[in-house]
Design goal:
Layout lengths: L6 E5 L2 E9 L11 E11 L5 E12 L4 E7 L7 E2 L4 E10 L3 E11 L5 E12 L6
Antiparallel strand pairs: 1-2, 2-3, 3-7, 4-5, 4-6, 4-8, 8-9
Organism: Qipengyuania algicida
Protein name: Protein ApaG
Pfam families: DUF525 (PF04379)
C-alpha cells in the first residue's frame, strides 16, 4: 500500500513527510482510548550525508494536555542518509481523547559533526465521528 503523505516540512534540504491514519481496531472509545498510526518518510535533498540522532515530539490532546517525547533515533534506528536517500518508518500514538495533534523535530548531524534541527510538520489526530 502506498502512503498518501498529507503533511510536509522542509528544513535545510531535508523533507519530512507524514501520513496519519486512525486505527479503529486498536481503539476503545468506550474506555476513552484512541489510537493512530503514522508513516514518516525522511528525504535527504541536501548535498551531504546526514545522520538522524534524536527525536523530540510534542503531543497534545483535545483537553490541551501536552506530552513530550525525547529519545535517540526513530524506532530504534539512527539512519544515515546520503544525498538523495530516504528513510521510512511507521509508529503509533495513543490518546485519551478523540482528537489531538503531533509536531516536533529531529536532530541531525552533518558529516563534520555539526548538529541541526529538522522540523516535523504539525499534523492533527482526529477520530471519525461515530453515530449514536
Amino acid at each position: 500500500m502506498k502512503a498518501l503523505f498529507q503533511h510536509t516540512a522542509i528544513t535545510q534540504g531535508v523533507a519530512v513527510r507524514v501520513a496519519v491514519s486512525f486505527l479503529p481496531e486498536q481503539s476503545q472509545p468506550d474506555a476513552g482510548k484512541w489510537f493512530w498510526v503514522y508513516h514518516i518518510r525522511i528525504e535527504n535533498h541536501s548535498h551531504e550525508t546526514l545522520q538522524l540522532m534524536t527525536r523530540h515530539w510534542r503531543i497534545t490532546d483535545a483537553g490541551g494536555r501536552v506530552g513530550l517525547v525525547d529519545g535517540d533515533g526513530v524506532v530504534g534506528e539512527q539512519p544515515l542518509l546520503k544525498p538523495g536517500e530516504s528513510h521510512d518508518y511507521v509508529s503509533g500514538c495513543p490518546l485519551d481523547t478523540a482528537h489531538g495533534s503531533m509536531e516536533g523535530f529531529y536532530t541531525f548531524h552533518r558529516e563534520n559533526g555539526e548538529p541541526f534541527e529538522v522540523r516535523i510538520p504539525f499534523f492533527p489526530l482526529a477520530a471519525p465521528a461515530t453515530a449514536d
